[in-house]
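Page header: ASSEMBLY MODEL / two components / 591 residues total.
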Amino acid sequence: MTHLKPVNRKAARIEQATAPDVVALQRTGVPQMPHFPLGCSLIFSPGWEADRTGGTAGLCQPVERDLFDCHIGCYWPAQVPDQLNHAPDWTAKCAAAQKDWRKMDLIFP
Amino acid sequence: MIAWAAREHHRFEAAGKPFVYLVPSAAIFELDDAADALLRTLSDRPRTREELSAFDNIDETLADLARVQAIGEIGAPPPVSPKVIPLAPVAFETARSVPLTTMVLNVTNQCNLSCTYCYEYGEDKIVDTANGRQPKFMTEDTARESVDFLLREAGDVAHITFFGGETLLNFPVLVKTVAYARQRAAEVGKSVDFSLTTNATLLKPEIIEFIAENRIGVTISIDGPKDVQDKFRVFTNGAGSYDLVAPKIRELLRRHRTRPIGARVTLTSANLDVKKIYRHLTDDIGFWEVGFAPVTTAATRGHAISGDGYDRMLDQFRELAYEYVEAAVENRHHGFSNVQETLEELHKGVSKAYPCGAGLGLLGVATDGDVALCHRFAGSDAHKVGTVRDGIDRGAQIAFLEKHHISNKTDCSVCWARPLCSGGCYHEAHTRYGDTGRANLHYCEWIRGWTDVCLQIYGELSVRNPAFFARFEDEHDASQAS
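Prediction written out in full:
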């Protein structure tokens, strides 16, 4: 910053925290704040819509995780195939959503 | 149309330079001329990028101000951080994760003075201290149970503050409690220290000796020189207490050198000569520090401070505060403790969800062992959050925290001083409005005025002697800041 000079300790922390560099994903050992349940209205599964600061830089799971949350924990049938009857093997090739989500194909009824 | 607008902030000047205090982050930045001019323009009204094109290097200045959230775009998506943090989980987490650090032990609710403004005995009292169900003196057993309670609830460090009534009326229990607490703390591997508040009337050589030997911090309630002290701080027969307490305090100050001894002054409408009181208590009597607080009372009482009383008080606080600056620039001590406390909070960038630690890290214990929000509510059933025997009632505590969160104080949501004030004292609100959850609107102007003075002082020191702030750093906080 060229036009502002941090004076107190909070200002110094803001300068540090807003430095233009995506480091959130590599952070370790940072004490976690309580999560804000901003997600689904039926279950609280934070971590994929907002990170601990309310932003998206430090999501603990990729946005694709959204898919699984919607079809297992949540009543949102239109978005995912019916795995009980119609497409039981839909996720068979997807061992870990974080890396295998591309292997889940579209289902045509 | 996207336009830039100033967000919540308070601009102030110090040492000839412009500064900004950001709300609610409580960050303080010094501005250069370009940033200052831009922020002032946007404070006037929002502008589009085109309207600002006359400024040099405008995009860079906009970016800097936006980065610290001093300005924001209107018409753009809302900021990523939620304005109101969901209450329930936070209150729940807070209640469980903040350890008890300070327990104020009301060892008696009796007093040998009859100060007319007293919140415990006067017209504004909450608890019937004379004929109520509470015992007049805390028993040794209850005091021991209180110590056990504190050591269960506390982290590594625990403070016990003995309070009253007049604390020294129950000196025998105080002595036993200190010994017991030291022994128990050693057994469980925690550290404990002690302080007490007294009106000084009962100080005598044996008591002073005990206090000094046990390194007990002392705060003396005293209002100033004889004419001031004797106006309100009187015995039941109306006689003033100055002549009795002054020599005893001098003796205490002479003997007790292990902890700084402070005076705590109650200001009333009839007693607002802050500088005269300060001079007397420091120069003539020898106190290390002096703190001032306006009397807590209903608005209708004669001694209540109102309108121009707050203005007079602020003028004198300001003068004393600038004395403090001159001392601080030369790294000399100055005993005006009100300014010291606020400077520390400004330096750390404290932004409070609650005005004080009551009900969180601080609890008050009544003579019968009931635990209340703080000492001022000790013995009140309506403000009880447990007992020393059964522990803290988490349900009551969480309900209290949810109700009193700053986001419930609608009036405060537009005030730039809320990171420090957070609505003010619960007890003051209860006395004024009959509701601990109300914001103390009667002294908002005073709080904003005083916060502004402290910001100017902070800015001034940041230019003239930034090394002075090193005293506000400690290991624990440094690790939090990383």
